[in-house]
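ok so i was messing around last nite and threw this chain in just to see what happens. nothing serious, just curious
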Amino acid sequence: MTGARRATRRARRVRPEADGSVLRWPGAAQRFALFGEVLWVGALMAIVCLPVVTWPAAVAAGAAHLRRFLAAEATPAAEFFRDARRAMPGALGAGAATTALVAIVGVDLVLLAGGGLPGGMPLAALVAAVGAAVLVLTLLAASLWSPGTPWWPLLRISPRVARADPSATAYTVAALGLAATIVWQFLPLVIPVLGMLAFALVAVGERRMLRLEAAAQAR
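result:
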């Protein structure tokens, strides 16, 4: 990147408003542009998700892409795919494990619904809850990822992060449930849903940071 382009990017980030204030997320000032970027990143994530087990890398790259956009930084597709490649080594293990778990949960729920396994609805609810918890923790780890960050520490601290901010965890669960419902109703909507899920994770993460900053200032 040339010096002129770096200067232009910095100017975009610190340009004050009419009242002299500076936007925390200057990229969100143009709402239609933000909406278009969410749809675009959903399409990019869908490409990376094609092998299925790569989905954590797609989420990590999508969240990083949207954070750059909100900061009014350059967001070329090439940078998204670079992030996906960087995230891939550690994400493959998590992706394979969660994909296998979802398949097992799905089979168990079908058998339980058909009476093929004892336990009925209580066991079905328990199986679904375990699967959802693992998915939420993996999503949380993916949203915390940044280039150069290993996956194992993120997966290890994700339960602690989830417990530290229950409301943010509830928002993540709601976003995942809404995304699953929309895709179940109409599969072609998976592309915008992926982008909206990444944006929800970024928004929840920014909310968590704001609360931590407010708590630190209150001390």
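not much to say yet. Confidence is low (pLDDT under 50) at residues 1-21.
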